[in-house]
UniProtKB/TrEMBL annotation:
Pfam families to which the protein is assigned, alphabetical: Glyoxalase_6, Pterin_4a
UniProt KW Lyase keyword: yes
Record's protein name: Putative pterin-4-alpha-carbinolamine dehydratase
InterPro entries: Glyas_Bleomycin-R_OHBP_Dase, Glyoxalase_6, PCD_sf, Pterin_deHydtase
Top-level enzyme category: lyase
Top-rank lineage group of the source organism: Bacteria
UniProtKB keywords: Lyase
Boundaries of every Glyoxalase-like domain copy: 107-205
Catalytic reactions of this protein: (4aS,6R)-4a-hydroxy-L-erythro-5,6,7,8-tetrahydrobiopterin = (6R)-L-erythro-6,7-dihydrobiopterin + H2O
Protein's organism: Actinoplanes campanulatus
Family, as annotated: Belongs to the pterin-4-alpha-carbinolamine dehydratase family.
Length: 211
């Protein structure tokens, strides 16, 4: 299967799906647990028939769906086809497909010392993948190591919040209204750097302008 670019994915994805941090994602607004459970079973049957299996996270009023082709390590046409099938199943069940507000959180450690990876690998028990440590279950945030200088004072940790491009401007506006500042948009639309009133930084990240 061919790895698709972020632009290809967003242009071809069904309505209500977003591309965040290497995966196609949506939220099915079931309204109650029984409806969500029934939809899990329906999606499961379709996934078995397609021999391609999404990650499903069932909660009381919604069902989160994550699609990627693990053998390729990216989103492919296989994921887009299954996303379309899942949207059709949700529509037949009277369930809304709506990814509004979906985010993925990573934690970045700014460090001049790459040997820090070994310490955090030992403590967290995550597999080491390049400059990242990833939770095998996909439940906890990925930890990655960003090379930085050693000048003091400096912020060691910062969150990277992955959002759909359509949500960047509203989030920036709300952050500024809450007393934050826009530190830099030099790397936009790949990411924007914001800071809270005390100077603690956070990056808003999107798929745009990335390899």
């Amino acid at each position: 299967m061919t790895k698709l670019s972020g632009r290809e994915i967003t242009e071809r994805a069904p309505q209500g799906w977003v591309y965040l941090l290497g995966a196609l994602r949506t939220r099915l607004r079931t309204g109650d647990f029984a409806s969500g459970l029934a939809l899990v079973n329906t999606i499961g049957a379709a996934a078995e028939a397609a021999d391609h299996h999404p990650d499903l996270d069932l909660r009381y009023t919604y069902l989160d769906v994550v699609l990627s082709s693990h053998d390729v390590g990216a989103v492919t046409g296989r994921d887009l086809r299954l996303a379309a099938t899942i949207s059709e199943l949700a529509d037949s069940a009277g369930v809304t497909v709506d990814a509004t507000g979906l985010t993925v959180l990573e934690m970045a450690l700014d460090t001049p010392s790459p040997e820090r990876v070994g310490f955090w690998e030992a403590v967290l028990g995550y597999p080491h993948d390049g400059d990242e440590l990833k939770d095998p279950a996909g439940k906890l945030p990925t930890l990655w190591f960003q090379r930085s200088g050693d000048e003091e004072p400096r912020q060691r940790w910062h969150p990277d919040l992955w959002v759909d491009p359509s949500e960047v401007r509203p989030r920036i506006d709300r952050a500024l209204a809450a007393g934050g500042t826009l530190v830099s948009d030099a790397e936009a639309p790949s990411f924007w750097v914001l800071a809270d009133p005390e100077g603690n930084k956070v990056c808003l990240c999107t798929w745009q302008d990335r390899g």
